[in-house]
Structures are given as C-alpha cells and as structure tokens.
C-alpha cells in the first residue's frame, strides 16, 4: 500500500494556521490599515511612500514567513 | 481530466454571472474611489486623484462619527439578537400549548420589507399619534420622543432591528439545536453536570459554527443598515442615528459626490471584512491551534 506523502507542517510566526491566500489577505488588510493610519497621523511629517514601502516589506514577510 | 472539464462547463454560467454582477461592479467602485467624479459639477468628467478621497475620509469628523455610531449599533444589535434568539430557540425546543401559532407569529417580522418595518415603527413612535409615547407617558410618566432625545432615537433603532431580525437568529439556532445529538447531553447529565455546565461545555461548543455564521450575517447586515433607520429617524435627531449607510447615501445622492462616496463604501466593506475575519480568527482558528497543541 502506498502511503500518501504529506508535507511537513508549516510553522509560521502567525498564531493561527494559514495558507497562502490567508497570508496574502492579512498582508492586504495591513497594507490598507497602515496607509489609513499614516494619512491620519503621520503624513504631515513623513511622506506616504514610506508607508507603501513599509507595507510592502511587512506584507512580503507575512506571505513568506507568516 | 474529462470530468474536470465537464465540471467547469457546468460551473461556467454561475461564474460568468458572479463575475458580471459581483466582480465587475466592485472593480468599478474601486476605480471610482480613486477619482474625483461629480456628474453635476462644472467639470463632470471622471478625474483620477490618487488617494485624495481616502485622505479626506480619515479627517472627515462626521464620517468617523457615523462609523463609531454604526459600530455601536452593530454591537448592540448583534449581541441582543444572539442572546434573545438563543433563548427563544430554547423555548421553541420545548412543547407548550400553541407552540406552532407562537412560532408563526414570531417569524412574521422576517417577511416584512425593511422600509415597511421602518414606517410601522415610525407610526408607533410619533408623539401625539403613536401608541408607544402615549403608553409610556400614561403608565410610567416617561417622555418618549425619538425626534428630540438622542439616546431614545438610538435605542429605538436598536429595538426595531432586534424586533425585525431576531426571528432569523431563532430559526438558525433552532435548526442547529434540533440537529444536535442527544448522547453528549445524556452523558453530561449522568456525570452530574448542572445546567450551566451543560450549556457552557456541551451546547455552546457544538452550536459555535451556527452562532458564528449567524453573527457574520447579522453583523454584515447591521453595518449596512439604511432603509429602516431612514424611515424611522431620518438619521436624526441631528446626526444621532446617521449610520454609515445613511451618510454614504447623503454624499452620493443629494451631493452627487461619487468618488468620495465610493471611497467610503470601500472603507466600510474593508471594515466589515476585517471584523468578520477577526471574529473568525478569534473563535475558529484559535480552536484549530489548540487542537494541534493538544
């Protein structure tokens, strides 16, 4: 009998089980939240593109390691 | 391979319809959200203005106030409906004289159109005409006037929504309760569990998926309530019941500011999705985590 090959369980830093779609979703949610927060509180001192760069980096980390 | 192709063929009409009526309008609103577009302005053309609508939105005090009111409304409505719906579902699980009649009467508000519900409650609460202010004054000496008092207007919108939608929760939970197996309850009784322990450790965990689904449905509905509240209070007194749907309506229709209205709609959708996801993550995903750790 052939045993079904199972992938080793993924251990990301997020406290819940996620698949790629979940992590992409969390990244998009954070992307929007960071931009709204930035526009409301920080944009007068720091330009918005910093928020974009920060969000992309955080999103990439979540998708890769979350 | 062949069966997969046949499957896609059968699914195709649904997918096409979903794409046309679901995805395309969403993308259209998404595009409009990044534009300045007022068809009745001096320049009626659609002009791309980047994130300007969203920048305006985060500083728009009336919008943020509406958002806060809506979240408060959704919390009160959903919590009340779930608790009341559960109690009524438990009641309808038992046998009592006239059970079928009461169940039918209880379900009737569900089939009434929201606009008619608003009109009915408006007639019930108009001072000098409706019975509710009359009886409140006669019996309790209480001045019920939702056109004057902010808290009364808010509470009346909550009561109206609870009256309208609790039967949905009752029916859902009644179906879920009816489908629960009897063995765990008998086992718990044999083990000497009291009623609260049976509720907390047996009934509630087994009902959790049904409760969660109901909370999602009711929360999404509560966050986009417009017509009932519009008929009952018109968003007043002042802006006391101007929930987010009413605010968007005012921006989009009388003011014809489509770009800003679309941006607000997108943010409302965003918040709805995030809240549902957080609830899901807190209740369902955490349970999965525990199961793995055990």
Describe what this molecule looks like in 3D.
- The complex is a heterodimer of chains A (66) and B (294).
- In chain A, 62% of the residues lie in helices and 0% in strands.
- Chain A has helices at residues 20-42, 48-65.
- Chain B is mainly alpha-helical and 294 residues long.
- In chain B, 74% of the residues lie in helices and 1% in strands.
- Chain B has a two-stranded antiparallel ribbon.
- The interface between A and B is medium-sized, with 14 and 16 residues.
Global structural class of chain B: mainly alpha
Instruction: Report on the biggest sheet of chain A.
Output: none
Strand residue content of chain B: under 5%
Shape label of chain A? elongated
Strand coverage percent of chain A: under 5%
Radius of gyration of chain A: 17 Å
- Rg of chain B (CA only): 24 Å
Strand order in space, largest sheet of chain B: 1-2
Tell me, rounded to a whole number, the average pLDDT of chain B.
Answer: 90
Low-confidence stretches of chain B: none
Main pleated-sheet profile of chain B: 2 strands, antiparallel
Structure summary, number of beta strands of chain A: 0
Oligomer: heterodimer
Q: Summarize the amount of helix of chain B as a percent range.
A: over 70%
Number of H- or I-type helical stretches of chain A: 2
Count of alpha and pi helical runs of chain B = 12
Topology order of chain B in helix (H) and strand (E) letters: HEEHHHHHHHHHHH
Global shape of chain B: globular
